[in-house]
Amino acid sequence: MKKYILLIMSFRYFLVFGLSIMLISCEKLLFEEDLATEDPRKNFDYLWNECDRKYAYFELKEVDWNQVYNEYSAKIYDGMSDDSLFNVLGSMLRELQDDHTNLISDFNVSFYGVYRKGQDNYDARIVNDHYLPEDFYISGPFRHEFIIGTNEQVGYIRFASFTGIIDDFNLGFVLDRYKETKGLIIDLRENGGGSVSDVFDLLSHFVDEKTLLFYSRIKNGPNHDDFDEPKPAYVEPSKDNRYTKKVMVLVDRGTYSAGSFTALSSKAIPHLKLVGDTTGGGLGLPNGGQLPNGWTYRFSITQTLDLSKSNVHEGGVPPDIHVLINWNDLSRDEVIERALEEIL
Amino acid sequence: MDKKILLLIVLVIPLMANGQEPIVENGQQKKSAYLKVGIGAGASSFRDQATSPLFYQGTPISAFVSRVKVSDRKETNLGVSFIAGEYTAEVNEKQRGMSSFSSFNTSYSRLYQLQNWSDENWKYKVGGTLMMTANFRSNEKLQNNSFGFEGFLNLLGSFKVSRDVSRENEKQKKFLFINYTLKPRERILSYQLNLGLWNSSLRNGYAYINQSSVINDYSFLDGYVLKTFSGLRFSSELNYTLFLLGARNNAVQISYVWDAVQTEAGAEVFAMAFHVFRLSLLYNTK
Fold first, then answer.
1. 8 Å CB contact of A46 and B53
2. Complex ipTM value
3. pLDDT > 80? residue A7
4. What is the mean pLDDT of chain A?
5. Lowest CB count within 10 Å: A2, A184, B11, B242, which one?
């Protein structure tokens, strides 16, 4: 009898504490398999599938993603080097024609290079040497001054990057300085974008009332046309330092992402005009992710639509006035010259 | 004096004060209430398949405080805990990512003793636990998906078994040539298992990031999806409680805590697990 009692007592210990160990080990059963691998084919398939499920612009760009799979999967082979695999995956992503689409490893970053679609249309030295005094102002992200020879009738504002540091103080100072001018030139050429909040902080000073700028819709399913309903993007007028005279916004193929958002928004504000070349596009919000081998990637998962709800401007926002620089004469910036004609 | 040593003294001295009788009287537990404070460290892993197929692993630290009330009928435990650490992902032993991770957890459990099953040495309790967890993650390599947040609300069925392993008589011991005496000491070994009965999660939507910043109408939870009656959660706690000699029922507790949670199965599963060793101080507040 004593033996049975001891047996039961021992069994209770085993049941309780053995169960705890067993259940903790069940964690491996709860979680799905570890997917980390350097296998080239698995990484290729993973990237292709992620793009297939979430990339936003297949139809607009007329990309047959299944055809791309057939073409690029044939280039994958066992034992290929990291460099070779990167080249295949990077080339595959370039088929999307989107500079918001990149593959990033610890030795390389893939890109599309949309700026090559047009000629170089900006040179800072031409602007600095012939249109601005030596001691131009630097206020936050803005370099600015009255344009030489305009009798302080035109202000020039170089905005090189959307760094997210626009505030009422720095932009307020700038606009207050030029409040008596006939017009402004805001130079967004070769501005690759950045913080989208700067778009609204900037444009709030150029509207007198709440203004609808564009629409945006986001992927919500795996089919190429699975999107949420378009949502409107409005800008509210700033309380102070609003400028409502003529504004020439200079753009080119290097104007990308937040720069393109600003260019597209300009179409909704009557006293803003785009001068220069078509922008590079980049109107899709990029996501971010990681492959089974640890490399990271990003691609566009939203579409931006103009006021007629067309997504066509992903290919670039066209200027209202098309002007290109003549590189045979480095004493003139034809884009600025044309903008000055519009203002004066 | 070093501040850490002073803090330790302030915490430990009250535990050593002479005071009331031990909690067990005539084989029955008296009513007791404790403030339980502790720290811990351990191993943890998570995987967010919405952004990466890799498991991120780390050795976080944790801190917690709870209010425990125990009687011969029931036991309640209301607590908050915090876990944080740096996690890394490896592929073929090469580091391929780093993420900071912090998790806030609030839980309330209520257990009732099964009188017919329990005896002087073995106590069996059943009941439920409500857990609410919020995770915050940051991984710069994931670009616009660098920030991760998910919330969980779980109702779990709980089962607890306790074994009184007290030393009732003095024991004479010898280590090498050193003779020493082990005095009678109140000790309890317990194990609690919680199984998720109702699981819900608040997670990013299909695209993961949201477009609220693009449309100038920022909202932190824009696009987040609440899913009820989905996912899994299991947790367990193995405790060794040592009541202090001649103390006011204060105690020291060493614990091994395991917690695992997973969202609904699919392509965008989030899963995490913690294995934490804890050292707690229980202050009797009655």
1. yes
2. 0.87
3. no
4. 93
5. A2
Instruction: Say what the pLDDT of residue A196 is.
Output: 95
Contact B270, B48 (CB under 8 A): yes
Give the whole-angstrom CA distance, residue A297 versus residue A295: 7
Task: Using DSSP, state whether A343 is helix, strand or coil.
Answer: helix
Number of A–B residue contacts, CB under 8 Å: 148
Pairing of strands A154-159, A289-290: unpaired
Q: Enumerate the residues of chain A whose CB falls inside 8 A of the CB of residue B233.
A: none
Below-70 pLDDT ranges, chain B? 1-30, 246-248
CA distance A338 to chain B (A): 32
Question: Least CB-CB distance to B269: which of A32, A37, A304?
Answer: A32
CB contact under 8 A, A292 and B269: no
Evaluate if residue A224 carries a pLDDT over 50: yes
Structure tokens belonging to residue B49: 């398949």
Q: B57, B94, B143, B164: which to substitute to probe chain A, counting the most A Cβ within 10 Å?
A: B143
Report helix angle A40-54 to A65-73, nearest 10.
170
Distance between CA atoms of A264 and B214, rounded to whole angstroms?
Answer: 13
Whether residue A37 is predicted with pLDDT greater than 60 in this model: the reply is yes
Give B-chain residues touching A302 at CB under 8 angstroms: 207, 211, 214
- Name the packing angle between helices A82-94 and A40-54 (round to 10°): 20
**Across chain B, where does the E strand assignment appear?**
24-25, 28-29, 32-48, 56-58, 61-70, 74-91, 94-113, 122-138, 147-164, 171-175, 178-182, 187-203, 225-227, 232-243, 251-262, 270-284
Give Cα separations from A183 to A141, A153, A208, A250, A251 (angstroms): 20, 7, 17, 13, 17
**Two structure tokens written together for B268:** 């965008």
Q: What is the mean pLDDT of residues A261-274?
A: 97
Residue B7 φ then ψ, to 5°: -65, -40
Beta-carbon separation of B213 and A197 below 8 A: yes
Taking contacts as CB-CB distances below 8 angstroms, the residues of chain A near B42 are none
* Segment among A4-8, A139-143, B111-115 with least mean pLDDT: A4-8
CB contact under 8 A, B53 and A221: no
Find chain A residues with C-beta within 8 A of B91's C-beta: 36-38, 292-294
